Amino acid sequence: MDNLWSVLRREAVYIWYYFDLQLRQIFWYWVLGMSIGSLISVFAKDRIHGLFGKMQSKKWGLFGIIPACLLGIASPLCMYGTIPIAASFRKQGMREDWLAAFMMASILLNPQLIVYSAALGTTALAVRIVTCFLCGCAAGLLVHFLYGNKDFFNFGEMAARESRDTHPNLLVRYLLNLWRNVKATGLYFLFGVLLSALFQRYIPQEWMVRAFGGNEAWGVLMAATIGVPLYACGGGTIPLLQSWLQEGMSLGSAAAFMITGPATKITNLGALKIVMGWKRFFLYVLFVMFFSLASGLIVNLIL
């Protein structure tokens, strides 16, 4: 029994060492990401969505997909917040391909997640931004060429929810939003750090290299696949990705994971199923898996 307790204490010390090391490396990215995310949510969200709404008066055609993607990335809302906004724009006559690009980009990336991802290094951050932007553009193009003028989304009677950031004092309004941000992401973030510590302690580095390293399609496919069940919160996956990249995960595999993770997050899938129906929802999942695999292979070839 004494030997068992000594072993458990020793393992606890090792896990705490890796946990503390990972936390020190990434904690301030999490704090900065939440701070910037709350700033945008409180003071710039309405302006971003207003700019998207004003696009309806522009005759940009397919090229409107590009600003739609950029505004989707800039939007701080989750998918359950984005869908009612998109529904209101549809009622005002917004094009389906622009809506698809906006929503796809919004699913994959937001200002807060960009700051989190800076912890992975500039190359991985650039890969994430570029692949997510291109994925949004591809979604808009597919909706345009496959569905033309037909409705792709079925928003029903969804309406945008009233903002909770209404306190008359701007500082209090910001702090309340920041606190909601902490509550929404804090446990996921700490759980991600713990998982990273467990991986570092118990998963040999050569296993990670064999599973996700090199330029093999298998590693990219594996990363795209595990992104489906493992992704619960963007901030929670950054510690895992940082650890995996340090242990030999290829950038292409990381790119695939960073696309399938948010795109197939269970809450996002639930929201999209409501507005797509089964057939288009199934096409969406196929598109995400294909694009993530293709992106990962191309990233590995280039880098």
Task: Quickly list its features.
0% strand; 303 residues; mainly alpha
The number of domains is 1
Kindly report the average pLDDT value: 86
Oligomer: single chain
Q: Tell how many strands the DSSP assignment holds.
A: 0
Order of SSEs, N→C? Answer: HHHHHHHHHHHHH
Distance between the termini: 52 Å
Low-confidence residue ranges: none
The description of the largest β-sheet is: none
Structural class: mainly alpha
Radius of gyration: 20 Å
**How helix-rich are the residues, as a percent range?**
over 70%
Shape: globular
Task: Please report which band the strand proportion falls in: under 5%, 5-15%, 15-25%, 25-35%, 35-45% or over 45%.
Answer: under 5%
Put simply, the count of helices is 13
Give a verbal description of the structure.
This protein has helices at 2-43, 45-54, 65-74, 79-91, 96-108, 111-117, 122-147, 170-202, 205-212, 217-230, 234-246, 251-263, 266-302. The longest helix has 42 residues, at 2-43. 79% of the residues lie in helices and 0% in strands. The protein has one domain (21-302). It is mainly α. It contains 13 helices and no strands. The model has no long low-confidence stretch (mean pLDDT 86). The N and C termini lie far apart (52 Å).
